[in-house]
């Protein structure tokens, strides 16, 4: 079975072709990091309109690389949400029209769940139950999975996402965009224990996250000490700030592991899972505790359509039905089990 | 200018409850601009407004910097925009935010990036100290 997946929930336009949900035949991603892509020109920071301009090229490229034709596709997969509504609708409408024309099934998936799927795509034998941390520019969410496709959201951010806090501090210091990778690089020159940050306290027993307090504390240091991009203290500050964010993520995971007993594996995924310090610290934590850790390779951590196609395939095999009336869900599902709004 | 009020808050909780009062007075069609530097507490203020306007679980109210728009269901829909990442007017116009005006309360963080013709309420948050904020609420009669 050939699956075409499409992902347009935020800045990246991506299309992928998978065989049987496992073998990636192509996974084309157009992002701001690839401004000098074959299609040239500047890709604006955001853009439902940009997705409209590029989606057909990206899909053609993914089919070309996979050496298949559109008519060969057996299942169409698309991200339904969460994300920017206009951007989501571009992918949804595009895929719906293809599915309608070729009279083939269409499956919509949750973008955050698809990030977790990226780990299973590379490691099909991960054993359940699994705790999965999705950490990216737009999301910081913790999931408990008792079995395949059983995604239970147990914690999410109450203000900024982890990547967002990193990006905002980078932008404030005029370090450039995207801020996360720049902070990752500059932090290597700094001492992470130089600046102290008190970790956020979540007053109830949830596994929610909060990063705006850390962001405000970093801003306070920057202003009081007049730290600029070229100040000598900037490396220590960034290293300390980055470590505080990662330590808070680890603390929350540690707490979840103590409540949800018998977890067999930890997955850390999403764009910020490319951060080298985060990988290093999570690996150290898991080595110490003997917990198997799975972090997808960098290309599958970023927003991409292969993870969408893979998850859609599993959903389709499980339910064997589909609905052309798919709609976009701009918001994340609430941890308290409320349905999409 | 029809009405201006100035407040000093000393904690996130105080900022939240000030915003909650404002939220409880809304009729459900207002456009509210939130203006203040990074870390001023715009998202906290938005949480307060949402709480006052009947959103039960305010942990759902988080920064829309990445998603640009978050939608919450209170007594009426609340459309929470954040223009932080957007740089030029064309990108902002692409959002189609005017489609939401009149459909519910429209809250816009970093609203100063675009000149909205008729905001109903403008909130300016200024950092005075650690948790101390000066908050000015301007209400306009349209």
Write the layout of secondary structure elements.
The complex is a heterodimer of chains A (341) and B (142).
Chain A (H helix, E strand, L loop, with lengths): L1 E6 L5 E7 L3 E8 L17 H19 L8 E7 L3 H18 L3 E5 H12 L7 E6 L4 E6 L6 E5 L5 H11 L6 H9 L24 H13 L9 H26 L5 E5 L6 H14 L3 E2 L3 H4 L3 H15 L22
Parallel strand pairs in A: 1-4, 4-5, 6-9, 9-10
Antiparallel strand pairs in A: 1-2, 2-3, 6-7, 7-8
Helix pairs in contact in A: 1-2, 3-10, 4-5, 4-6, 5-7, 6-7, 7-8
Chain B lengths: L2 E7 L2 H13 L6 E5 L6 H11 L16 E5 L3 E6 L6 H6 L10 E5 L11 E7 L5 E7 L3
Parallel strand pairs in B: 2-5, 2-6, 4-5
Antiparallel strand pairs in B: 1-7, 3-4, 6-7
Helix pairs in contact in B: 1-2
Describe the 3D structure.
- By secondary structure, chain A is of the alpha/beta class.
- Chain A folds into two domains: 2-115 and 300-319, ATPase, nucleotide binding domain (Nucleotidyltransferase, domain 5); 128-291, ATPase, nucleotide binding domain (Nucleotidyltransferase, domain 5), CATH 3.30.420.40.
- Chain A is globular and about 60 Å long.
- In chain A, the strands form two sheets. A five-stranded mixed sheet of chain A has the order 3-2-1-4-5, with helices on both faces.
- Chain A contains ten helices and ten strands.
- In chain A, helix 5 crosses helix 7 (234-259).
- By secondary structure, chain B is of the alpha/beta class.
- Chain B has a single domain (3-85, 95-132), classed as 3-Layer(aba) Sandwich (Rossmann fold), CATH 3.40.50.300.
- Helix content of chain B is 21%, strand content 30%.
- Chain B has helices spanning 12-24, 42-52, 89-94; strands spanning 3-9, 31-35, 69-73, 77-82, 105-109, 121-127, 133-139.
- In chain B, helix 1 (12-24) crosses helix 2 (42-52).
- The termini of chain B are close together.
């Amino acid at each position: 079975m050939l699956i075409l997946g499409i992902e347009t929930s935020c800045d990246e336009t991506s299309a992928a072709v998978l065989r049987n949900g496992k073998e990636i035949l192509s996974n084309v991603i157009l992002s701001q990091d690839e401004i000098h892509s074959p299609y040239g020109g500047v890709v604006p920071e955001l853009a439902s309109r940009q997705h409209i301009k590029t989606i057909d090229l990206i899909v053609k490229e993914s089919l070309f690389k996979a050496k298949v034709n559109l008519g060969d596709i057996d299942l169409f997969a698309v991200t339904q949400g969460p994300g920017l509504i206009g951007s989501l609708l571009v992918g949804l409408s595009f895929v719906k029209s293809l599915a309608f024309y070729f009279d083939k099934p269409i499956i919509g998936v949750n973008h955050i769940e698809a990030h977790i799927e990226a780990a299973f795509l590379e490691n099909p034998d991960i054993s359940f139950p699994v705790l999965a941390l999705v950490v990216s520019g737009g999301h910081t969410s913790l999931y408990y999975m008792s079995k395949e496709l059983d995604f239970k959201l147990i914690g999410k951010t109450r203000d900024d996402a982890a990547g967002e806090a990193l990006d905002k501090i980078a932008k404030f210091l005029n370090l450039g965009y995207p801020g996360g990778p720049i902070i990752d690089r500059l932090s290597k020159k700094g001492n992470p224990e130089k600046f102290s940050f008190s970790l956020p306290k979540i007053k109830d027993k949830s596994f929610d996250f909060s990063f705006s307090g850390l962001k405000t504390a970093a801003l306070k240091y920057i202003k009081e000490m007049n730290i600029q991009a070229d100040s000598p203290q900037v490396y220590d500050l960034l290293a300390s700030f980055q470590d505080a964010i990662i330590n808070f993520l680890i603390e929350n995971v540690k707490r979840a592991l103590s409540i949800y007993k018998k977890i067999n594996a930890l997955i850390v995924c999403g764009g910020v899972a490319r951060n080298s310090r985060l990988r290093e610290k999570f690996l150290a934590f898991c080595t110490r505790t003997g917990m198997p850790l799975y972090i997808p390779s960098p290309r599958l951590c970023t927003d991409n359509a292969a993870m969408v196609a893979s998850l859609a395939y599993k959903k389709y095999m499980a339910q064997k039905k589909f609905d052309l009336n798919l709609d976009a869900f701009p918001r994340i599902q609430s941890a308290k089990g409320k349905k999409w709004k | 200018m029809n009405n201006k009020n100035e407040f000093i808050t000393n904690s996130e909780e105080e900022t939240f409850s000030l915003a909650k009062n404002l939220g409880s007075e809304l009729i459900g069609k207002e456009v509210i601009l939130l203006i203040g530097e990074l870390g001023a507490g715009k998202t906290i203020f938005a949480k307060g407004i949402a709480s006052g306007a009947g959103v039960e679980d305010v942990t759902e109210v988080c920064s829309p910097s990445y998603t640009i728009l978050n939608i919450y269901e209170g007594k009426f829909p609340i459309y929470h925009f954040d223009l932080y990442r957007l740089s030029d007017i064309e990108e902002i116009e692409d959002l189609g935010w005017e489609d939401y005006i009149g459909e519910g309360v429209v809250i816009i963080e970093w609203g100063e990036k675009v000149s909205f013709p008729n905001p109903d309420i403008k909130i300016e948050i200024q950092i005075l100290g650690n948790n101390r904020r000066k908050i000015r609420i301007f209400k306009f009669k349209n």
